[in-house]
Design goal:
Number of strands: 12
CATH topology of the largest domain: D-Maltodextrin-Binding Protein, domain 2
Number of domains: 3
Radius of gyration: 24 Å
Order of helices and strands: HHHEEHEHEHEEEEHEHEEEH
Largest sheet: 8 strands, mixed
Helix content: 25-40%
Strand content: 15-25%
CATH class of the largest domain: Alpha Beta
Oligomer: single chain
Shape: elongated
């Protein structure tokens, strides 16, 4: 069995059909089926169950073991090849980076500055909440991630990038806040709120609920959403207000919103750059870590 056959096997599993995998690999279906049979004969086990009257395939227990091992072997192989190629080479290639949506506005100026220094590096960006970004790190879809804390940091290296206070984001059309430039968290008890909430784990939502609980307040939450951009669009439309770090607000929408400081809470957002401890990082990733840590 060789690396090429492992790639074939992963493609079949991930596409769910031999025909789709063959198309993805730019090869005919019969040779791909033959390679799968050769692997099964060599191992002495059935790796995939062919579904009757269907084109789809399902992993057997042996196939599940091989799938996990094959993914790991290919990641190690690809990282080793990259490390060898980069020995004595300049900073170039593609850098895969995950970005938690609450941190997205933190990124443009930093990436532009990096591109000016390293013009031969391109980026592939993935957005999501810290939980989904963590999953992408573990699958090695990405090398680095910029996330809002807290996050499960087991197995991760981390550079803390800074903290900032939360702000209230409200529609410009609202008259209830008059000409205020600041508001206390206790004043928000009856304000309709749209809050960003992670799919899994604790984050901004849980921090705010704990803070209101400290004051004995039950806030008027009318919407919870994972996507900060959807929340901001609803705020701009007048559905309610929200609370988030100032840097989570993209410049292009700020003129449609009012941003007020929150005076009576020490709550703040902390941003960090994280990566897996046990993987090789490309030169581009190493340079970005160094730049952001300065």
């Amino acid at each position: 069995m060789d690396i090429r056959q492992l790639r074939y096997f992963l493609a079949i599993v991930e596409e769910g059909q031999i025909s789709r995998a063959a198309k993805k690999l730019n090869m005919a279906q019969p040779p791909l089926s033959q390679q799968l049979r050769l692997m099964e004969e060599e191992l002495g086990v059935t790796l995939l169950e062919r579904q009757r009257n269907k084109k789809s395939v399902e992993l057997t227990e042996a196939g599940k073991v091989l799938y996990e091992k094959a993914r790991h072997v290919l990641h190690v192989f690809e990282e080793s090849m990259r490390e060898v190629k980069e020995t004595g080479d300049g900073v170039r290639g593609e850098l895969s980076l995950g970005v938690a949506l609450l941190c997205a506005s933190y990124l443009p100026e930093k990436l532009q500055r990096f591109r000016e220094q390293y013009p031969h590096v391109s980026f592939r960006l993935w957005g999501g909440d810290p939980f989904s970004i963590r999953e992408r790190l573990e699958r090695r879809d990405i090398e680095l991630a910029i996330v809002s804390l807290p996050i499960d940091d087991s197995g991760l290296s981390m550079v803390r990038l800074g903290t900032e206070p939360f702000v209230l984001v409200a529609p410009t059309s609202w008259e209830m806040l008059n000409d205020q430039t600041a508001v206390s968290i206790t004043e928000l008890a009856d304000v309709p709120l749209l809050l960003v909430r992670r799919e899994k784990g604790e984050g901004l939502y849980e921090q705010l609920m704990a803070e209101w609980g400290r004051f004995g307040i039950r806030p008027n939450v009318v919407c919870e959403c994972q996507d900060v951009h959807i929340v901001l669009s609803l705020v701009a439309f007048g559905m309610g207000a929200s609370i988030m770090p100032r840097t989570a607000i993209p410049p292009f929408i700020r003129k449609e919103l009012r941003v007020l400081e929150i005076t009576d809470t020490a709550l703040c957002s902390e941003t960090a750059l994280v990566w897996l401890k046990d993987r090789y990082l490309s030169k581009a990733a190493q340079r970005l870590i160094k730049m952001l840590a300065e």
